[in-house]
């Protein structure tokens, strides 16, 4: 699924190009690119290691098929309404300290 290999390859290409470059600006830009690709590779590796721990989109279980589906617009609106009501209540309770 996720792999940092393609970014590591690009980082190695940038490092090689930086070794062969002569202009200081070009060397600096290639080093920046090398670091950016290395960071992207680390991010991809982290995603691969932690993908199963991430929170995904909300799912609704249907009784008839037992299939989980994403909520529709009406369900999302109801969830947002509840969140805003709770935030409003919390704001009112803390209003005197604000």
Search tags:
elongated, 98 residues, 4% strand, 66% helix
Structure description:
It is built from three helices and two strands, in the order H-H-E-E-H. It has helices at 5-20, 24-50, 73-94; strands at 60-61, 68-69. Strand 1 (60-61) and strand 2 form a beta hairpin. Helix 1 (5-20) packs antiparallel against helix 2. The longest helix is centred in the middle third of the chain and has 27 residues, at 24-50.
The ordered H/E elements are HHEEH
- The level of helicity is 55-70%
Proportion in β-strands: under 5%
Name the quaternary structure.
Answer: single chain
Query: What is the alpha-carbon Rg in Å?
Result: 24 Å
Which strand order spans the largest sheet, edge to edge or round the barrel? 1-2
Biggest beta-sheet profile? 2 strands, antiparallel
Average pLDDT, all residues: 85
């Amino acid at each position: 699924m996720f792999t940092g290999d393609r970014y590591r390859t690009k980082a190695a290409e940038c490092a090689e190009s930086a070794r062969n470059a002569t202009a200081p600006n070009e060397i600096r830009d290639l080093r920046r690119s090398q670091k950016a690709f290395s960071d992207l590779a680390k991010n991809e590796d982290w995603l691969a290691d932690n993908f199963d721990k991430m929170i995904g989109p909300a799912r609704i279980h249907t009784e008839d098929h037992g299939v989980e589906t994403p909520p529709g617009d009406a369900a999302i609106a109801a969830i947002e309404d509840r969140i805003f009501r709770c935030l409003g209540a919390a704001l009112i309770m803390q209003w005197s300290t604000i």
